[in-house]
């Protein structure tokens, strides 16, 4: 027995040594230490800020269905035409399905694959009745307290205007790119992108085009967001999660609420939702591991230990990973009940109460596998499932050693001269138009160069959406440097 105990102690000691050594070595030294010199990009700040403020004043809302304000989109298109005269006169501009835009800046060398920069014009609605909760009206575009306020300041008119500002500036300087630059701005990203990005991708495919890389919205520069990290973290999305909403409907007999059955339709529906929340999808550490490794020693030791030793800890990750929504979202397919529908009156039993549950699908799962698992977990044949709205599988995950990623990382460091800055890849937890272009490139990334803290992040699709003036100017400069770095002579 003594020998067994001694042997176990030795094995345990060896195991702990392996865990500690792997943790200490779990850092990418090159990624965590940048020697890229800063570059001074001069901007005439006032008109740049004013144009974004004006852009917010166009309520280009994607409601879905037939609720579409054509007048707002037409007016916004005209605003862009007037605001960026060089872009419209020197680039080939094509209007797609009335409101989306595809622009081509011809490069000098046809042998080089072009790049594609993207953003979208449409914004989500403001929840009716919440307008009074905004510090400034959501479509006023107010510039105050160092911020530009309003719906679309982050998602995603800062991308549209930022790309155009950078392009206009380069044209004014007489810059001529070696490789061609394409710009694409969809008008229906928030409802799936079928008339915007999907159509644009189809047209580009018909032309036989392939891109060196594609860049869309998604990642940002974060401050005070990554647990345990005090400095800036620029998060580049090499891929994105899939999207699926399922409508669950429970069949009931209706009738008067004074004579309810022992099990109501709403009760069965509630049980189904409860089971889905009680049995979440398993944690997968794979798509956060590179993110943690590139942050290196900045990450608290216990967090690095978990990811450095996935082979040991992943089966127990549910009990080890902090229950922080922003952290969990990158590690599993998420389950979020979002809509409920019951009876028309408080004393009437509903015939067919329903709920909509939204899933953001981690790579490795598909729309089909998620639907099958939901059926299995609910385990109730009296509840029907049907797809609600659009759905999409996770995108391909692009490499981080590509030309596109390297130029983006370089451009970020050149503009943000902050020694605390770290650049790292992480799967984007939301859906973007970039997924529609997977067939046109091997390298697709998601990044908008604004800096956001916890308060600013809450404003995306929420109340008081805003971007700081300095942060927006930073984004314009990153786009400017990125175009130069990607299309200049090597």
Count every beta strand, where a strand is a DSSP E run of 2 or more residues.
15
Q: Name the beta content range.
A: 15-25%
Radius of gyration over all CA atoms, rounded: 25 Å
Distance between the termini: 69 Å
Poorly predicted segments:
none
Number of DSSP helical runs: 17
Name the shape in a single word.
Answer: globular
Which structural class best describes the helix and strand composition? alpha/beta
Mean pLDDT, all residues: 91
| Quaternary class | single chain
Largest sheet: 8 strands, mixed
The helical percent reads 25-40%
Give an account of the 3D structure:
The chain contains 17 helices and 15 strands. The strands form three sheets. Strands 1, 2, 3, 6, 7, 8, 13 and 14 form an eight-stranded mixed β-sheet that branches. Strands 10-11-9-12 form a four-stranded antiparallel β-sheet, covered by helices on one side. The radius of gyration is 25 Å and the shape is globular. It has 490 residues and is α/β, with parallel strands linked by helices.
């Amino acid at each position: 027995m003594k020998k067994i105990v001694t042997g176990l102690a030795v094995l345990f000691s060896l195991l702990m040594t392996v865990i500690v050594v792997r943790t200490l070595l779990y850092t990418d030294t090159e990624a965590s230490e940048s020697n890229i010199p800063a570059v001074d990009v001069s901007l005439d700040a006032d008109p740049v800020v004013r144009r974004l403020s004006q852009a917010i004043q166009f309520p280009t809302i994607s409601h879905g269905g037939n609720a579409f304000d054509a007048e707002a989109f037409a007016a916004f298109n005209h605003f862009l035409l007037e605001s960026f005269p060089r872009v419209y006169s020197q680039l080939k501009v094509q209007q797609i399905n009335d409101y989306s835009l595809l622009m081509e800046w011809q490069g000098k060398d046809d042998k080089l694959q072009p790049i594609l920069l993207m953003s979208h014009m449409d914004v989500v609605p403001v929840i009716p009745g919440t307008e009074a909760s905004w510090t400034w009206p959501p479509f006023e575009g107010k510039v105050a307290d160092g911020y530009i306020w309003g719906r679309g300041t982050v998602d995603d008119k800062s991308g549209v205007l930022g790309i155009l500002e950078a392009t206009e500036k380069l044209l004014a300087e007489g810059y001529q790119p070696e490789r061609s630059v394409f710009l694409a701005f969809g008008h229906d990203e928030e409802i799936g992108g079928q008339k915007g990005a999907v159509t644009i991708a189809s047209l580009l495919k018909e032309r036989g085009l392939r891109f060196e890389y594609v860049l869309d919205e998604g990642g940002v520069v974060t401050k005070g967001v990554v647990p345990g990290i005090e400095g800036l973290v620029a998060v580049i999305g090499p891929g994105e999660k899939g999207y699926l909403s399922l409508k669950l409907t429970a069949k009931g007999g209706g009738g008067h609420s004074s004579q309810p059955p022992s099990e109501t339709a709403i009760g069965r529906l509630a049980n189904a939702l409860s089971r889905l929340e009680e049995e979440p999808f398993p944690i997968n550490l794979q798509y956060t591991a590179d993110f943690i490794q590139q942050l290196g020693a900045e990450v608290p030791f216990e967090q690095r230990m978990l990811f450095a030793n996935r082979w040991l800890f992943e089966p127990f990750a549910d009990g080890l990973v902090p229950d922080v929504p922003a952290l969990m979202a990158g590690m599993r397919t998420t389950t979020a009940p979002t809509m409920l529908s019951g009876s028309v009156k408080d004393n009437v039993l509903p015939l067919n109460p329903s709920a909509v549950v939204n899933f953001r699908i981690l790579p490795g799962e598909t729309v089909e596998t998620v639907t099958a698992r939901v059926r299995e977990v609910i385990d109730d044949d009296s509840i029907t499932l049907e797809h609600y709205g659009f759905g999409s599988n996770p995108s391909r995950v692009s490499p981080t050693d590509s030309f596109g990623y390297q130029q983006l990382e370089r451009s970020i460091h050149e503009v943000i001269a902050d020694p605390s800055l770290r650049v790292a890849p992480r799967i984007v937890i939301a859906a973007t138009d970039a997924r529609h272009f997977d067939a046109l490139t091997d390298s697709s990334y998601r990044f908008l160069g604004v800096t956001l803290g916890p308060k600013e992040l809450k404003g995306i699709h929420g109340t008081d959406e805003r971007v700081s003036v300095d942060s927006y100017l930073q984004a314009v400069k990153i786009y400017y440097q990125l175009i130069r770095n990607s299309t200049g002579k090597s």
